[in-house]
Amino acid sequence: MKVVYRELGATIGRDFHPVGIGATHRLIKLCSAVLLVIVGSTQFASKNSLAGTMDEWERIDAQCTRITPPAKKIERCVKLLADSRIPRNYLALINGQIAWAFSDLKQYSKSIEHKLIDISLAQDELRRNHSTGDALRANLNAISGRYEELGMFYALDRLSRLVERSDEAHKSAEQERLSYLSALKFNPRNYKAYMRLAEIESLLCDSLAASSHQDTALKLAVQADDDRAVREYKYAILPTCIPDWRASRH
Question: pTM value?
Answer without folding.
Answer: 0.79
